[in-house]
């Protein structure tokens, strides 16, 4: 029933997106492995890893879009869930090293031997088993999100306040993970991984496998997000976004809806982090930096919030630009990123997809109305999209 | 007035005469001592020892360098004329120094001089006499240092010279330290118990860590009444030390709180009063710090005598520069985004990235050197507390800025307009207030104060493009904790967070303490979402 429901709700845009994503998932590894390296169509290994990284970023952006675009919760701390998922994966990979570490200790990771730890801390138990680690990838961020969200939403912390305390949350975790006593490798984090599920992590086939896994995870999460947002629950979420008090007065337990979507989103971010770590080969506390989390928000804003596809598009576009800029004009990148924040919020409040969508509807409406005008009707107004329209908003303090 | 002036002139004259008289007398002393010093080179150890005792008997501290050199084996005699010098290797053989005046006395070849030999017995004699010599020195600072050295060593050998010195001592401060040193030495000597009990009392009155360790030594090595007295004194000292420890934590906490206050107070205007989330606030602080750097750089290159006033020049400049950037930002970006706080947050974050990178491109990514003026360096002691001047001035400055801001908001027409606009924009506009200009100026005021804060923070923090980022989360925490729209809340919030942080640090460490504070605020916001001092009203947002 669920699948039929899913297909029913798929519109043309989503269909195109899924087709493109599937094509990428199939083509990139194929071109990497099957085509000879000297061929023009060959995709080099580094490009596969790079694109795999983009896909995990896209998944992270998707999770942010789910809470921001549909529920109005601007999270400046999604990097925390991403990094927690990454750490869960990193712990599994550390345990897989076994005796191949520098110190050759069968259970203790190198950094613990270095710090003269005698035995494994309790929270490292079980991470030698893949199923447990993969479960923790979702559960660890999920629990954090649940506890945080339970307190925050119940006491009706909303808007900017929530944004700031999510930022404080990830900042606190950043400081905590920098400590050596925490048992997560301190400043250096977890690195020097050898293999995953028995496959060599450096091998190009494993890389391609991770790429496919990232793509599939993105696809599945996209479908889940779509299912959630198109359902009745999704309608309530949008109502919460647009008029929280009114929704509450209508009898909905707003905090439960928020909590559900918040935890779901955190789990997706955790999965993104877990897929990210084996591809870049390291996880360190830097991932908790508040700046990273804010950057994710701009990916979503560029693509168009509340569109899901836009988040994926924005993440890939911005990160591609980042890769290009940091290689070609490293000094200019922060200028460009900063300008992107300003320009998008001022001139493209709906992002690329939103603006295109608006233009599309406007065009169609004009066509409809011109048809109707032939019948004697009045042309309906086009929705405002330009910054000039936004500028007409009477300045109101946000209280 | 003229009376005072002539008095000063008279005093100066007397002083000059006195100095001259002293120097004449000193010269005579030197002439008398010279043969004694030269005699050191004659004869064997026994003879030398007698000469040393003769030198010490002179009681003149000018012989101290000679004795020190003798002890270290640096005293040489010139074979040609039998004159004695302190010599160090260098030049064509040895560099000679006159042992009494410690002035350079030329060089000597390797074979022209011979060393005055010294043995352990001689060294002991010198050690014992050295303390008594410095205790008699003319300079009270030297006497003080000598007495402190005896106190630390607690050597019973020092007892007799100390008592001799106490007889002659005139300076009250030095006398006090000498009494304490005498007590310390007495405890280790074989004097009677009643003397020792008195000594314990004297030492207990000092009340610092040295005294504590001394008394612990006494407690562990004696019995009976002495031990009891020592134990009682130890508990007393420990209590007072704990109190001073708390006082120190409060002081450090207030110091940290004043830094937080400085960083947050501009934000309290833009976020608290106007409701604008300015993520570029930290960068305004950073710009203020860089203004200080540029001003100091210009002064160093063109007018070094102005250096002590550099901060006073930097303050208005920083206010103007950060303030005008603030006005430009409000006119250019923020005014399009009123009513959309989340978008404002993102746009100003982008702005902060641009400002950071601009500073990085202009000045480079490394830390810049910003100096402390004379009046901001150094420290003074208050009881067991060491108070540094720069921390103290920053606390004073933070409170001044706070008071100034309060005055502006409560007592000036501009402040009145600002409050009117934030309370009821439409009504204020109807009354003829140009609300857009008030918005721009208020934002400029907040940014300008951030710039001023940057001048102060440049004195205690590294001036780098990342300066502002370190403060932004803390300042938001302060404003949110204290309550939005309330400057008093910001003051209380900053001080509370500062003190709590410093009290947590000894137990949890700096990083964990900070984490606890963050978690505490996160929990606190759950309980009181509008902060410590919430504005009362019936407003329901959205």
UniProtKB/TrEMBL annotation, chain A:
Where in the cell is the protein located?
Answer: Cell membrane
InterPro entries for this protein: ABC_transp_permease, ABC_transptr_urea_perm_UrtC, LivM-like
Q: Does the keyword Cell membrane apply?
A: yes
> Topology with regard to the membrane?
Multi-pass membrane protein
Record flagged with keyword Cell membrane: yes
Record field: transmembrane:
12-34, 123-153, 160-178, 208-228, 256-276, 296-320, 332-353
Q: Where is this region: Disordered?
A: 368-399
What keywords were assigned to this record? Cell membrane, Membrane, Transmembrane, Transmembrane helix
What GO cellular component entries does it have? plasma membrane
Q: Name one GO molecular function term.
A: branched-chain amino acid transmembrane transporter activity
This chain belongs to which protein, by name? Urea ABC transporter permease subunit UrtC
Q: Which organism is it from?
A: Roseibium limicola
Lineage, uppermost ranks? Bacteria, Pseudomonadati, Pseudomonadota, Alphaproteobacteria, Hyphomicrobiales
Gene symbol of the encoding locus = urtC
From TrEMBL, chain B:
Membrane topology reported for the UniProt record: Multi-pass membrane protein
SUPFAM superfamilies recorded for this chain?
ARM repeat (SSF48371)
Q: Which GO terms describe its biological process?
A: amino acid transport
Q: Which Pfam families match?
A: BPD_transp_2, HEAT_PBS
Q: Where is the signal peptide?
A: 1-26
InterPro entries with a match to the protein in the record: ABC_transp_permease, ABC_UrtB_bac, ARM-like, ARM-type_fold, BCAA_transport_permease, PBS_lyase_HEAT
Task: Establish whether keyword Zinc-finger is in the entry.
Answer: no
Q: Which GO terms describe its cellular component?
A: plasma membrane
Q: Which Gene3D superfamilies does the annotation name?
A: Leucine-rich Repeat Variant
Q: Which keywords fit this entry according to its UniProt record?
A: Amino-acid transport, Cell membrane, Membrane, Signal, Transmembrane, Transmembrane helix, Transport
Entry annotated with the keyword Nucleotide-binding: no
Q: Name one GO molecular function term.
A: transmembrane transporter activity
Q: Where in the cell is it found?
A: Cell membrane
TM stretches of this protein:
250-277, 284-303, 309-329, 392-409, 436-456, 476-500, 507-525
* Organism domain of life: Bacteria
Q: Which family does it belong to?
A: Belongs to the binding-protein-dependent transport system permease family. LivHM subfamily.
For this entry, the protein name equals: Urea ABC transporter permease subunit UrtB
